[in-house]
Amino acid sequence: VTRLVLVLGDQLTPDLSALAEADRARDVVVMAEVAAETEYVWHHRQKIVLFLSAMRHFAQELEEAGWKVAYTRLDDEGNSQSISGELLRRAEEQGAGEVLTTLCGDWRLRTEIEDLPLSVTVLPDRRFICDRPRFEAWAEGRKSLRMEYFYREMRRETGLLMDGDKPAGGEWNYDAENRKPASDDLFIPKPFTVSPDAVTQGVIDMIADRYPDGYGTLDGFGWAVTRGDAEAAAVHFFAECLRDFGTYQDAMLQGQPTLWHAVLSPYLNLGLLDPLDLCKRAAAAWEAGDAPLNAAEGFIRQILGWREFVRGVYDLQGPDYLTSNALGQSRDLPEFYWTADTEMACMADALGQTRDRAYAHHIQRLMVTGNFALLAGIDPAQVHAWYLAVYADAVEWVEAPNTLGMSQFADGGLFASKPYVSSGKYIDRMSDYCSGCTYAVGQRAGDGACPFNALYWYFLDRQRDRMEGNPRMAMIYRTWDRMAEKDRADALASARDILDRLDRGDPV
Ligand code: FAD
Ligand code: SF4
Residue 177 belongs to a domain with what CATH number? Predict the structure, then answer.
C-alpha cells in the first residue's frame, strides 16, 4: 500500500530520514503550503516567500529524481490550510493510512502530527551533528547547561580544530579577539543576493496579493531558494567574509546590515546547507592559511556549539519553555518594533533593516533590540512572537532558546550566566550609531539622555532581589550603590518617564 511521506518547509534535504526510509516507486511525498503555517505569527513576507519558493523548487527536485509529489499551493482550491488537514485529504485521495515523517522543528506541529487519526511514524532528524540521545546524555545531571563545555565535547568528537586531544592553537575559544569595532573605511564585502526566478516571482506576486498590508518589504527579495544558490552563498562567505568574520563579529555599522557575517542561517535551517560540511570547510580554510584561527574557531563555535546546543535545549525543555517568564516582565511590545519609527538610531537601524531584509546579525538582535526589550520589561512571550515572525531564519527550535534564554533571561539563567543587558556605552563602543543619534549616549538622565542608560539602571534596581546574588553582577551593584543618591533618583525618574511614554505609545 501507498504511504504518505510528509516533507515540511524546513526539511528540504534529499537524504532526509523520511525520504531515505520511503520507497519512491510506491510512496507519495506530501508537501503543503498552508495558511495555518504562514499566519500563526505575523511572518515577514520575505520569510514566507523564501519558504514557499524553496519548497516549490525542492518539490521539482524530488520529481526530477523520480518521486511522486502531491503538492498543495497556498491558493489551490480545496486547500484545507493546515498540515493535518492536507495529510487527511491526501490520505483519502491516495488510499493511504500510513504517514512517514521526520521529527519537525516545533512542539506545536509535533503535537498536531502525532494526534492525526493515521498511523504516523516519526523518524529522527539526522541533519544535526549531535543527536538527541547524545545531548540528553551530556545534559543529564547538570544543574545549569553551559554551551562552552558542550562545545568542547563536540570539538573532541568531531576532531574539528583539534591538535591530538588539545584544541588547535592551545585555546578552545578565541572570543577575546573577536570584539573589535569596525569603521566604514574598511573594505566591507557586498551582501550575496540572487535575483528571483519565475517561480520565486510567482510566489512574491501571490504573497503581495494575499497579504497587501503584511509585515516586511517584498521589494529587493534576494534570498537563495535552491540548494545550488545556497551553496553559492556559502562559497561567497568563505571567499569574501570568513577572514574577518571573527575580528568584527560583534561590530555594528549604520547602514551595513551584514558586514562579515555568513547570512547562511536560513539555508541551514531550511536544510539547503549542511552544518557539519560548513564547519569542515571553515577548518580547512584555516589549515590552508586562508583564514585566521579566531575566525575559523568563531564560526565553528556558532554552528557546532550554539546551533547544536540550542537545538538540544529546545528538545529537552519541552513546550512549557515557551511561556517562561522568570523575571515577571509584562509590558506590551512597542509598536515601533514593527514600524522602526523611533528616534533611537541603533534601534531604527536594526528594526529598519529587519523590516527591509528579514535579517539582522547576532549583536543587533542581542544587544540592541533584545537588550531594549529586556531593559524595558517587555513580556517575553511577545518578544518571542516578534523574533519568530520577523527573521528569514526564524524557526522555533533555534529562535526560542535564543530569545527566551539568551536574550530575555526568561528561563532564569538555564544557560546564560547573567542577563545580556548593557547601557548605551556598549552600543557606542561597538558601533557608529551614537554619533548620529538624537539622544546623548554620555548622558544618564534628563531630557535627551540615551534611553538605554536610565533603563539599564532601572532594570538592575527593579531586579535586585533576583540578580544581586549572582557573582557576575556584584560589581555592577557596587557601582550603582556608590552613585550619589540624587543621580540614582534622577536615573530612575528618567526611566519611569521613558516607560510611561512607551505605555502611552508616545514617540521614543
Ligand atoms: P553568523 O553570525 O555568520 O553565524 C554563522 C552561523 O552560526 C549562523 O548562520 C547560524 O546558523 C549559527 N549561529 C550563530 N549564532 C547562533 C546562535 N546564537 N544560535 C544558533 N545558531 C547560531 N538564529 C536562527 O537561525 N534563527 C533564529 O530565529 C534566531 N533568532 C535569534 C533571536 C535572538 C534574540 C538572538 C539573540 C539570536 C537569534 N539567532 C537565531 C541566532 C543568530 O543571531 C543568527 O543565527 C545569526 O544572526 C544568523 O545570521 P548569520 O547566518 O549571518 O550568522
Ligand atoms: Fe542607541 Fe543610545 Fe546610542 Fe542613540 S545614544 S544610538 S539610543 S545607544
Answer: 1.25.40.80
In a domain, 208, yes or no: no
- HSE at residue 1, side-chain half, CA atoms within 13 A, is 12
Which residues constitute the domain of residue 306? 132-203+215-317
Q: Is residue 498 lining ligand 2, measured as CB closer than 6 Å?
A: no
Place of cell 543587558: 421
Q: Is the CB of 260 under 6 A from ligand 1?
A: no
Which ligand 1 atom minimizes the distance to the CA of 261?
3
Distance 363 CA to ligand 1 centre (A): 10
The residue-averaged pLDDT of 228-238 equals: 98
Q: Is 433 in the pocket of ligand 2 (CB under 6 A)?
A: yes
For residues 340 and 311, membership in a common domain is answered with no
Q: What is the pLDDT of residue 312?
A: 98
**Do 307 and 348 fall into the same domain?**
no
Share of the chain above pLDDT 70, in %: 100
Question: CA torsion angle for 123, 126, 130, 131 (degrees, to 10)?
Answer: 10
ipTM computed for the complex? 0.99
Residue finishing a domain among 123, 143, 178 = 123
Strands 28-32 and 68-72, how do they pair? parallel
Q: Is the CB of 364 under 6 A from ligand 1?
A: no
Q: 70 and 191 share a domain?
A: no
10 CB less than 6 Å from ligand 1? no
Cell digits for 488? 540614582
Which protein residue has the closest C-alpha to ligand 2 atom 1? 346
- Pairwise CA distance, residues 466 & 350, whole Å: 30
Q: Is the pLDDT of residue 144 over 90?
A: no
DSSP SS3 for 295: helix
CATH of the domain at 52: 3.40.50.620
Task: For residue range 297-340, list pLDDT tens digits in order.
Answer: 999 999 999 999 999 999 999 999 999 999 999 999 999 999 99
